[in-house]
């Protein structure tokens, strides 16, 4: 099929807004919908897009549609609910879900879309807001080869490392596993930060040593200083990390695998969320490590 030029983007949150802006800068004709209508209108005015009142209105006339929302219920509502986008898409359109959801849910959504003659690719992302802003996300896609090739120009506008992991479900599983690895890493870092503070070790010295040691990681670089400073401005919300870890644990159990470290991390994130930190950055897991 011809290159996709008209794109509907649903979900302009912490990640979705910058990702949609990358598409606008790349020259795609963009229509947008998000739950807060005023946010959609502001985005449209700033980026030369068309703001829609419903997902169906955003999808009208689009050749491709992207969803970037919190979880599978929101994806399903956006696509199949009242004024859902799927009913407005033409036969042969492409839908890309860039949310992080359970692999089983992604496969079921793809099957529902296929019944309508709509191609589907799951494409969760990694990199947090800074990489979304500069178009250097890691994108891990699951779907048929032909659908992935159609989606690739869109991915190239938003990402730097684009991996076709395999068939439907595999992209989401890769994302859940890597996020759970990051969650475990951040939990271990949080315990180290608490210990450093209790011992009176200089935080800058510790961070410098850790950066040159076996404990060095992207999580250390991004979250070490915010944990020490208790700066939890959300780049990736703790409640979303908790959701991803729980999805990962459930998928692993279904495969007969016990993720012991993931389960331990889940308890810390759940405690932090229960204490009111769910809407903050996942660096706030340090608050649970201190208790």
Question: How would you sum up this structure, described in words?
Answer:
- This protein has helices at residues 16-25, 37-47, 55-59, 72-80, 103-114, 128-134, 145-158, 170-199, 203-211, 218-229, 238-254, 260-277, 285-289, and strands spanning 6-10, 29-33, 50-51, 64-67, 94-97, 119-122, 125-126, 137-142, 159-166.
- The strands form 2 sheets. The chain has a 6-stranded parallel β-sheet, sandwiched between helices. A 3-stranded mixed β-sheet has the order 7-8-9.
- The chain has 2 domains: 6-166, NAD(P)-binding Rossmann-like Domain (Rossmann fold, 3-Layer(aba) Sandwich), CATH 3.40.50.720; 173-289, N-(1-d-carboxylethyl)-l-norvaline Dehydrogenase, domain 2, CATH 1.10.1040.10.
- 50% of the residues are buried.
- With 291 residues, it is of the alpha/beta class.
- The protein is built from 13 helices and 9 strands.
- Helix 8 (170-199) packs across helix 10 and helix 8 packs across helix 12 (260-277).
The count of DSSP E runs of length 2 or more, i.e. the number of strands, is: 9
Count the domains: 2
- β-strand percent reads 5-15%
User: What gyration radius follows from the Cα positions, in whole Å?
Assistant: 20 Å
**What helical percentage do the residues reach?**
40-55%
Tertiary shape: globular
Tally of helical runs: 13
The helix-and-strand class reads alpha/beta
């Amino acid at each position: 099929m011809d290159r996709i030029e008209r794109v509907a983007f649903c979900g302009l949150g912490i990640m979705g807004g910058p990702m949609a802006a990358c598409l606008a800068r790349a020259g795609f004709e963009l229509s947008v919908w998000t739950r807060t209508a005023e946010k959609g209108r502001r985005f449209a005015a700033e980026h030369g897009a068309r703001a829609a009142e419903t997902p169906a209105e955003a999808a009208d006339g689009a050749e491709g549609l992207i969803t970037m929302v919190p979880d599978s219920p929101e994806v399903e509502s956006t696509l199949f609910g009242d004024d859902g986008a799927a009913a407005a898409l033409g036969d042969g359109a492409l839908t890309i879900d860039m949310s992080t959801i359970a692999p089983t849910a992604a496969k079921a959504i793809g099957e529902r879309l296929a019944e309508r003659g709509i191609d589907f690719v799951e494409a969760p992302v990694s990199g947090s807001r800074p990489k979304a802003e500069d178009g250097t996300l890691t994108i891990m896609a699951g779907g048929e080869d032909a659908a992935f090739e159609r989606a690739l120009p869109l991915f190239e506008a938003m990402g730097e490392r684009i991996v076709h992991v395999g068939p439907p479900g595999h992209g989401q599983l890769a994302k859940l596993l890597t996020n759970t690895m990051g969650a475990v890493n951040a939990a271990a870092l949080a315990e180290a930060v608490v210990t450093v503070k209790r011992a009176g070790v200089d935080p800058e010295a510790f961070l410098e040593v850790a950066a040159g040691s076996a404990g060095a990681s992207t999580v250390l670089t991004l979250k070490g200083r915010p944990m020490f400073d208790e700066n939890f401005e959300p780049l990736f919300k703790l409640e979303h990390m908790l959701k991803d870890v729980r999805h990962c644990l459930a998928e692993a159990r279904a495969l007969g695998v016990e993720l012991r470290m993931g389960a331990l991390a889940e308890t810390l994130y759940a405690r932090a969320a229960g204490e009111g930190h769910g809407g903050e950055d996942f660096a706030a897991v340090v608050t649970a490590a201190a208790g």
